[in-house]
Design brief:
483 residues; alpha+beta; Uridine Diphospho-n-acetylenolpyruvylglucosamine Reductase, domain 3; Alpha-Beta Plaits; 7-stranded antiparallel sheet; 15 helices; 20 strands
Length: 483
């Protein structure tokens, strides 16, 4: 077992002293992501090249120290939290856009590039990068790859998996390898596809080749207000049943509307039980026709108001409310816990009714904002962590909601990943043989379950139940404490 001094010396040799973070007050920044999980690493390194990432991975392997890859830390499943402490490898310094090729419509970027920045730079060529998580101003491409991130505009076009052509990765064995490339149709086993969504358990992406698409020539955004969530859910199914697949179809319930209007004043009807934000894009003549059909379908399903954004500014304001809905909930409660599950569209109304019953039974308010078009739910449980037992009640309520998603024919995650928070739910969907076969893939990349992003994705694991208790103990540890 290495001492802290030995570990820091090895890391400094790999990346230089300035790129190693080790003081307790600095490490506090890296003890959490967007979840309730907490654990302070022994050190954080910020490599600037694939070679430095490789040197860090090899140094930690030699010392037997766990590694946790980290992007912007905006993740919502505990994936970037150092469950067994060890070393966090942050890609924050690797933020160059290396190439934008408008002919082949591809870009080559480093993992620390912010999602939104890529689209901003590609816009000079009339192109954009479609996957757009709500945190796209902050979240990074590397983290999006790790979680196979989605976003509001992924309904018609697809998620990260559909737009990554190739990856340069440092495997858990410390080797630099390319998976895929610039071609959209590679042959052989799809190790690129296996790496995307692996949540940092197989290695660390150091370059990413992505597909870009032309900016649509015309866009129409509609806001429909419904008396109830169930009516809005029915409208979602009926719109797609008519053969219309919008670019985006997002829903917010009354609690979300209340929080958004208090924060942004975007003009959502305050008396609505739910609002549906629908966007269609393409050629102008096609878009106008589809928008008319969407409007008619919403009115047929009980919408009290259907409004079309009259300008780019109004459209941007409507989306500002949607993308700011989750942080706006801080106006309603000191804390919130976000649940990420997927159900078939046809079961949306039933599931939302069951979520409402869970809220009433638990005594916890639950706000709902979600990608309605593909059934990706995000119930947000509002609470105050200062209340005794509040966190335990919230986690139990979240588990109950996840169980409902599975019972209704859905799955455990649409875009946030399994991480630390839902790994114990994996046997609800997968048998022991399934999980064992998934785990074998780690060996292909040289990954040791105890060393490379341990305690993520798969249930069980020695020492994986200690995350929440580490923070206070670590703050009292001196700089020479043993790893």
């Amino acid at each position: 077992m290495a001492t802290r001094r030995e570990l820091l010396a090895a890391l400094r040799a790999a990346v230089g002293e300035a790129a190693v973070v080790w003081r307790p007050e600095e490490l506090a920044t890296y003890e959490f992501d967007g979840t309730v999980e907490r654990s302070v690493p022994h050190a954080v390194v910020l490599p600037a090249t694939a070679g430095e990432v490789q040197a860090v991975v090899r140094a930690c392997a030699g010392l037997g120290v766990p590694i946790t890859p980290r992007g912007a830390g905006t993740g919502l499943s505990g994936g970037a939290v150092a469950a067994k402490r060890g070393v966090v490898v942050s890609t924050a310094r690797m933020r160059r856009i290396l190439e934008i090729d408008p002919v082949d419509r591809v870009a080559v970027v480093e993992p620390g590039v912010a999602n939104l920045e890529l689209s901003r730079q590609a816009a000079r060529y009339g192109l954009f990068y479609p996957p757009d998580p709500s945190s796209q101003a902050a979240c990074t491409i590397g983290g999006n790859v790790a979680e196979n991130a989605g976003g509001p505009h992924c309904l018609a076009l697809g998620v990260t998996q559909n737009f990554v052509l190739g990856l340069e990765v440092v495997t858990a064995a410390g080797e630099v390898r390319w998976l895929g490339g610039r071609s959209p149709d590679p042959f052989g086993y799809d190790l690129r596809g296996a790496f995307i969504g692996s949540e940092g358990t197989l290695g660390i992406a150091t370059k990413v080749v992505v597909r870009l698409l032309p900016v649509p020539p015309a866009v129409v955004t509609l806001l429909a207000a419904f008396p109830t969530v169930e009516q809005a859910c029915d409208a979602v199914s009926s719109i797609i049943a008519r053969g219309i697949v919008p670019a985006a179809m997002e829903m917010m319930d009354r609690l979300c509307i209340e929080a958004v209007e208090a924060r942004f004043a975007v003009g959502y009807p305050m008396d609505a039980g739910a609002v549906l934000l629908v966007e269609v894009d393409g050629l102008a003549e096609e878009v106008e026709g589809e928008a008319g059909k969407v409007r008619a379908e919403c009115l047929e399903r009980g919408a009290t108001v259907v409004r079309v954004a009259a300008s780019d500014e109004e459209r941007a304001l409507l989306w500002k409310g949607r993308k700011g809905a989750i942080p706006a909930l801080g106006r309603l409660a000191p804390n919130y816990y976000i649940v990420d599950g997927v159900v078939p569209r046809s079961r949306l109304a039933s599931v939302m009714e069951r979520v409402g019953a869970i809220s009433a039974r638990s005594g916890l308010r639950i706000a709902n904002v979600f990608h309605a078009g593909d059934g990706n739910l995000h119930p947000l449980i509002l609470f105050d962590e200062r209340e005794p037992g509040a966190a335990e009640r919230v986690l139990a309520t979240a588990a109950e909601i996840m169980r409902v998603c599975v019972e209704e024919g859905g799955t455990l995650s649409g875009e946030h990943g399994i991480g630390a928070e839902k790994r114990e739910f994996m046997p609800w969907l997968f048998g022991a043989a399934d999980l064992e076969n998934m785990g074998r893939l780690r060996g292909v990349f040289g990954a040791d379950a105890a060393r490379f992003n341990p305690c993520k994705v798969f249930p069980g694991g020695t020492g994986c139940g200690e995350m929440g208790s580490h923070a206070s103990a670590v703050r009292a540890a001196g700089p020479d404490a043993y790893v």
